[in-house]
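Discussion board: Methods & Data

I've been asked by a reviewer to show the raw model output for two of the constructs in my manuscript, not just the figures. I'm not sure how much to include, so I'm pasting the format here to get opinions. Each protein appears as its amino acid sequence followed by a line of discrete structure tokens. Is this the kind of thing reviewers expect to see in a supplement, or should I convert it first? Here is construct A:
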Amino acid sequence: MTTDGTADDYSALRDMVLQFLAGNTSRDLRYPLEGELLRLFGEDDDTPASRMLDRLAQYTPGNLAYLYSDEEMVGHFQRFLCWLDRHIAEQAAVIDPARAED
């Protein structure tokens, strides 16, 4: 996880997740998405972020056998986005408790 933990640290990751949910499943998005997950959460084990990395490694668009389907990945990313938003809010509260009350 990043050291300063502000919402700005997560904005690129959140934007990429939203692009995926909007239907962009290209490698041009998936590889930077994996990189951002690693940059922000690479040291964390057994978290929603580490599980998303595992799922991305087992995903290829087109519903190939033995891999996550497109629909499954959308569901995983929807849940991850909910977790990420909560995580951002929690980090903001730790960094600036007064701002979290707004």
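Construct B, same format:
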Amino acid sequence: MHGKVMNMFMGNQCYDVDPPLVMDCVKNALTSIGLNVEEIMFFDIDGNVSQDIDNARYVRAVATSNEINGKQIFTFALIKYRGKYKVLYLQSAVEER
């Protein structure tokens, strides 16, 4: 599952996305491979939660799956380029129940 996410986001998934659509793009991509997205948040360069995408440098998504016990936590880099955003895979983890 985590390998699929990595390949998806290191490919062309969520490239050249308009700012208001970044969270939807991440959610739709994860949902398309069978994950149930529970939370998506932006973080600034210092790791603090950011409500403003202009200050955000990371996206964290928390999801569940029928295939793996526990919460799946994905962290993505958020790159702004020419007024649009690219979401790149950084790391993932499993928080076991």
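Answer (T.O., handling editor elsewhere):
This is acceptable in a supplement if you add a one-line summary per construct. For B, something like: The longest strand covers residues 84-95.
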